[in-house]
Design goal:
The complex is a heterodimer of chains A (about 700) and B (about 400).
Chain A: H1 6-19, H2 23-49, H3 51-62, E1 63-68, E2 75-76, E3 82-94, H4 100-110, E4 113-117, H5 122-127, E5 132-136, H6 141-167, H7 175-184, E6 190-193, H8 198-207, E7 214-223, H9 231-234, E8 237-239, E9 253-254, E10 258-260, H10 263-267, H11 269-273, E11 277-283, E12 289-296, E13 303-306, H12 310-324, E14 330-336, E15 342-348, H13 354-357, H14 362-369, H15 392-401, E16 410-412, E17 414-415, E18 418-426, E19 431-434, E20 440-442, H16 444-450, H17 453-461, H18 465-475, H19 500-504, H20 509-516, H21 526-538, E21 541-543, E22 548-552, E23 563-564, E24 570-573, H22 578-593, E25 612-622, E26 625-636, E27 643-650, H23 655-675, H24 678-681
Parallel strand pairs in A: 1-9, 2-13
Antiparallel strand pairs in A: 1-11, 2-3, 3-6, 3-7, 4-5, 8-10, 11-12, 13-22, 14-15, 14-27, 16-20, 17-18, 18-19, 21-24, 22-23, 25-26, 26-27
Helix pairs in contact in A: 1-2, 4-6, 12-23, 15-18, 15-22, 16-22, 17-20
Chain B: H1 3-6, H2 15-36, H3 40-43, H4 51-70, H5 74-79, H6 81-96, E1 101-102, E2 111-113, E3 118-119, H7 121-137, H8 141-144, H9 147-166, H10 170-187, H11 191-214, H12 225-235, H13 246-272, H14 284-287, H15 293-296, H16 301-334, H17 338-362, H18 380-398
Antiparallel strand pairs in B: 1-2, 2-3
Helix pairs in contact in B: 2-4, 2-16, 4-18, 6-7, 6-9, 7-9, 7-10, 7-17, 7-18, 9-10, 10-17, 13-16, 16-17, 16-18, 17-18
Classes of the chains: A alpha+beta (about 700), B mainly alpha (about 400).
Chain lengths: ~700, ~400
């Protein structure tokens, strides 16, 4: 036999047999042939034609997918100080697959036995077979299941107790929890102890290392290093591991994760959160974990850089507490009048966002839900208040635009009930509006300083003036939101200002009178007042506030540049003359500096800094009681305005008494860290800063993007 | 092509067949390794108690036994046939005696415990049956036409069949039928007897199947419950009768799931192998234990090969068996006398039945029966007996017509 190629040889082998003159052997060869071909065809059908289907069945029975949360981006202040970051949280976990053998042996030990006496045939007896034997009792499937459950609990609770005693902690294990974990999450580790302290971690490492199935597992959780500082601005997070848009929707298991609800955490959640990853866990036929494999790594979230200055923010909050009590209900907004950057956005009282990650102390939880304190309210952007007298500068501007001579004097009539105070009667039914100012002659400047209601109601009622007020208000975008792109806090209110339509129908002179003194059918947020104040300060530009300066990757080595959000975005112009703005500015300077008239804003004064301001108090009725909203709006330096500071306190004594001292503290801090001593020596030139000429946003003032810090 | 071999010196082995056998043994050792080295406890076991190593030792012993057989002419062997036959009948009876046969943790008592080695008498009985029947049928054809001899041959087949069936090991018992039938066919037993035999066996089988699958419980013949369930699974018949209560249906449905599990997992293994397979030792089904660990390396070894080597691997296995089978038939054709021819036909048919039933059950072409895949499945008795059978084939080849 010569060596031939294998295939040919086999072919010959088969056909030779078939050609032989031996019908029986031929038949046998044919049968073997058909049999082998049938097998090959069957295998082709199963492996090649339907292979994919079996492959997918294999995957569903042996793979589990797990959602891995991504590392959340930090929230940083303008100087890169961290406001929100991540910290590891340690827990002790048990891996059930390491215990499966113990489950089985314990089950066998726990299985009931019975002693049976058999009647043995004589020869077996004679051979020495024992007639008394112990046998395992045959169990029903339900009994087997409950015995298995009991044996698992026995094993796991023993280990848990062991860990507990070595760590000196009382650790308990709930049988239902264990059973649920076993039936639903068998391939995942079982958490036994959560949120370990550093001492506990050390003790675990040194005393429990030999308990093999137990392991220390870390999870990255949110941490707010400044606790309550900027709490409303940052918002908080709640436990939630749902898939977000653009993410894999189906997972067998999900690891714990959090979702931002309000504040920057809520509004910038999609940026901060990154993209969850997927790992696959291979499970064996019993459902225990066999191996793990990261399928798609989680993408880290991006850091969010705010325009906020942490130090200034803390000063604002501290100052509110100092001057309006520990549970002061108020807000402070500090805004760069030329760029729109928000340097501080304080709201008080606040809670600690860390409580949402760890645990609320019971008292704090009660406080959180207490509506009279309103810890959850962001008073700077979400709550609405009537601006009261702080709206008067706008009315003054409108009157000046309509041809008011600032030196024209108006005589305030005394109130018959209180001869030391003025009063004005409005409309056909002669509604009376009290004045806090004393009767006598008032020009614009004195009227602003003394905040005469009589004067401004008179102005508002003059022909054409209120229409101009309304126009200015609409250019200031009162009654409109900034929107979630500009103010991603998820806590914003639009406020109200009468629309053209409202003013043209069923509008009473009384309505005009009330709005002219910042009450009645209008309300605003402190942030809106900061934009208004900035417009007064910068010569009439209504700026978009900027809260988020940039987002950037967490990876320091990445070459990817940060995404910057532009500042100095002009939203609108007041469209008033420089002269009139200057007149109002002079009047607002007098409010803080005019000793003769005993100006209401005196307490804001900071040596070396000239501040323009306006106090205000609005009354609101709440459950039959009259409550004050006290305000102080201001900007500085007078010579070349750079910062607007708006302070609002609910139920303060007065704008000058409660709010101006808060603003004083803020200006001290601004002077120290932002303005520097240079501003003091600057020539007191009472002019408008180089006109922000731009109407279409082309040439913007030459102010620096970054605030200089002079320490 | 064989003309040139006719004048060659006698005593030459059929090298092509040896090559096929070598290939099968290499595959067997490799995939017994792959099927058993699934966890640390298997990997850390001493080398000599690892399954693949033991398998190689069985191969060694089997090759030794086969070589020994080749030194004596098959005529000499055949003269001991009846002693061997009755001896193995003796072991088959012994295995049924409680205390001698062991169930090995399974439902059936098929083994005799010999200390380090469990002996499976049915494997030996298949061989001695072939030798005895070949000797019986090698008498002149005229004698075979006598009904008494036909019934005697039937009796020789029925006795081990009944004893193996009693263990119970339906699969092993059933392979005796085609083997005996093929041998009678080749021996020249008149066709009418054979047709009668086919008729009887066919009708009986059909009746049993119909009875098992469709008859109400009180009418059914007493099969072992697991055998009935295997048949039901194979034919895809619902376990629960139509009139069962919902709870009963639910329970039986779960039983059915459990019973179909093995076949289902074998199918998943084979199917997921696809065209090229996942690579040696890379099969998920064995590593994760979906393919039951206690069956993967013996009865379901083909699933392991098919998963890891794909359709290509399956075809290689079938080709190797083809080589062995067709060289076996060639040996039958060249045998010196009818005894040699019948021996060769018996061995070939037995081998073919095993291969067809075992591979067939992996792709649901056949019901699950505890039949090993010769030379690939792990197991001492099966390996040694298969190699002895191959030795007998070579023996027939060595002492073929030498003129």
């Amino acid at each position: 036999m010569t060596v031939k190629s294998g295939g040919e040889e086999i072919e010959m082998l088969v056909f030779d047999q078939l050609r032989k003159n031996d019908p029986q052997l031929q038949l046998l060869t044919l049968i073997v042939c058909v049999g082998l071909v049938t097998l090959a065809a069957g295998l082709w059908w199963v492996q090649v034609v339907n292979g994919r289907e079996y492959q997918s069945t294999l995957e569903t029975q042996s793979y589990r997918t797990v959602r891995i949360p991504s590392l959340r981006g930090k929230i940083l202040d303008r100087n890169g100080e961290s406001l929100a970051e991540n910290r590891p949280r340690y827990s002790v976990c048990l891996y059930l697959e390491d215990l499966s053998k113990q489950f089985r042996t314990t089950y066998r030990k726990m299985q009931p036995v019975k002693v049976v006496t058999n009647n043995l045939p004589f020869w077996k007896d004679w051979l020495g077979f024992d007639s008394v034997v112990t046998q395992r009792v045959r169990l029903k499937p339900e009994q087997i299941a409950s015995l298995e459950q009991a044996s698992r609990f026995h094993v796991v609770s023993n280990i848990v107790a062991q860990i507990g005693s070595r760590m000196g902690l009382a650790v308990t294990l709930n049988p239902t929890n264990l059973h649920n974990h076993y039936t639903k999450m068998r391939a995942m580790p079982l958490t036994v102890l959560d949120n370990l302290t550093p001492e506990q971690i050390a003790r675990f490492e040194e005393s429990c290392a030999d308990i093999l199935p137990a392991e220390l597992v870390t999870q990255s959780v949110r941490h707010y290093p400044r606790n309550t500082t900027a709490a409303h601005l940052l918002g908080y997070m709640v436990s939630n591991n749902d898939s977000v848009e653009g993410e894999e929707a189906f997972f067998s298991y999900r690891l714990p994760d959090f979702r931002g609800v309000v504040g920057i955490e809520g509004g910038m959640d999609m940026t901060l959160r990154g993209k969850a990853g997927t790992k696959t866990v291979t499970v064996n036929y019993l459902g225990y974990r066999q191996s793990e494999n990261v399928w798609a790594a989680a993408e880290n979230g991006r850091n969010v850089g705010l325009t906020i200055d942490l130090k200034l923010q803390a000063t604002c909050e501290q100052s509110l507490r100092t001057h309006a009590g520990a549970e002061a209900r108020g807000a402070v907004v500090v805004m760069n009048v030329n760029t729109g950057d928000i340097l501080a956005l304080a709201s008080s009282p606040s809670s600690n966002p860390n409580y949402f990650i760890n645990k609320f102390p019971p008292a704090e939880w009660q406080r959180w839900g207490d509506n009279t304190i309103g810890v959850q309210k962001n008073r700077a952007t979400h709550e609405l208040y009537q601006p009261g007298s702080t709206f008067k500068p706008i009315v003054a501007l409108a009157a000046l635009e309509k041809g008011l001579d600032p030196s024209e004097t108006i005589h305030v009539e005394p109130n018959p009930k209180n001869p030391n105070r003025g009063v004005i009667y409005v409309g056909r039914n002669r509604e009376s509006i009290n004045d806090t100012a004393t009767p006598g002659p008032y020009n614009l400047r004195r009227a602003l300083v003394k905040s005469s209601n009589f004067y401004f109601v008179t102005m508002g009622l003059r022909p054409g003036v209120f229409n101009r007020v309304s126009e200015l208000a609409h250019r200031l975008h009162l009654g409109e939101r900034f929107g979630s792109d500009v103010l991603p806090l998820m806590q914003e209110s639009a406020g109200h200002f009468p629309t053209e339509k409202m003013i043209s129908s069923q509008w009473m002179p009384g309505d005009t009178a009330h709005v002219s003194i910042g009450q009645g059918k209008m309300d605003v947020t402190p942030l809106q007042m900061a934009v208004l104040t900035s417009a007064l300060a910068n010569g009439g530009n209504v700026l978009w506030p900027r809260l988020v300066a940039r987002t950037q990757t967490q990876d320091m080595n990445a070459l990817e540049p940060s995404i910057e959000f532009p500042n100095k975005r002009v939203r609108d112009h007041l469209g008033v003359s420089d002269r009139n703005i200057r007149i109002v500015r002079e009047a607002m300077l007098a409010e803080t500096e005019d000793d003769e008239d005993r100006a209401t804003g005196l307490r804001v004064r900071v040596p070396g800094l000239r501040i323009c301001g306006k106090t205000g108090t609005a009354e609101r009725k709440e459950r039959g009681e009259i409550h004050n909203t006290t305000w102080f709006i201001s900007y500085a330096p007078y010579e070349q305005p750079r910062y607007a500071v708006v302070v609002m306190v609910e139920d303060g004594q007065s704008g000058g008494g409660t709010c101006a001292p808060v603003a004083h503290d803020v200006y001290l801090a601004l002077q120290k860290d932002f303005l520097g001593p240079k501003t003091i020596v600057q020539s007191p030139r009472p002019t408008v800063p180089s006109r922000i000429a731009d109407a279409r946003g082309n040439t913007l003032p030459r102010t620096t993007n970054h605030e200089p810090r002079t320490n | 092509m064989f003309d040139e071999t006719l004048n060659e010196r006698q005593g030459r082995l059929d090298k092509l067949q040896l090559l096929g056998l070598l290939g099968l043994m290499l595959l067997g050792a490799a995939f017994v390794y792959s099927a058993t080295m699934v966890n640390d406890s298997a990997r850390l076991a001493p080398l000599m108690s690892q399954a693949w190593m033991k398998q190689i030792i069985w191969y060694g012993i089997g090759i030794g036994a086969a070589t020994a057989i080749c030194f004596v002419s098959y005529h000499t062997l055949a003269s001991w046939a009846m002693i061997g036959y009755w001896g193995s009948i003796g072991t088959l009876v012994a295995v049924l005696i409680p205390g001698i046969g062991t169930a090995h943790g399974w439902g059936a008592t098929r083994w005799i415990d010999l200390g380090p080695f469990q002996f499976q008498p049915s494997e030996l009985a298949k061989l001695t049956f072939i030798v005895a029947l070949a000797r019986f049928l090698s008498r002149p054809p005229e004698e075979l036409r006598m009904p008494v001899n036909f019934w005697k041959a039937m009796g020789m087949m029925a006795l081990p069949f009944a004893l193996i069936f009693k263990e119970p090991d339906l699969g092993s018992a059933l392979v005796l039928v085609p083997t005996g039938f093929a041998m009678m066919l080749v021996a020249g037993v008149p066709r009418r007897y054979l047709f009668r035999l086919i008729g009887i066996v066919g009708t009986l089988a059909a009746l049993v199947l119909v009875d098992v699958l469709f008859a109400p419980p009180s009418w059914q013949i007493k099969l072992e419950e697991y055998q009935r369930q295997r048949l039901l699974v194979f034919f895809g018949v619902n376990f629960a009768p139509a009139n069962a209560t919902p709870q009963e249906k639910e329970r039986l449905h779960r039983v059915q799931e459990a019973k179909s599990y093995q076949v289902k997992q074998a199918m998943i293994s084979v199917g997921s192998g696809g065209m090229w397979g996942k690579g040696w030792n890379e099969g998920n089904q064995t590593a994760l234990g979906f393919l039951p660990r206690d069956a993967a390396h013996n009865d379901f070894i083909f699933s392991v090969i098919a998963e890891e080597e794909g359709f290509v691997g399956s075809v290689i296995v079938i080709t190797l068996y083809g080589v062995v089978l067709f060289t076996g038939l060639r040996i039958a054709g060249q045998a010196r006398d009818r005894l040699g021819k019948l021996l060769a036909v018996g061995v070939v048919t037995l081998l073919f039945s095993h291969v067809f039933i075992n591979i067939g059950m992996n792709i649901r072409l056949m019901p699950v029966t505890g039949i090993p895949l010769p030379l690939l499945s792990y197991g001492g008795t099966s390996v040694i007996c298969s190699l002895i059978a191959m030795g007998m084939l070579q023996n027939v080849h060595i002492y073929r017509k030498g003129y």
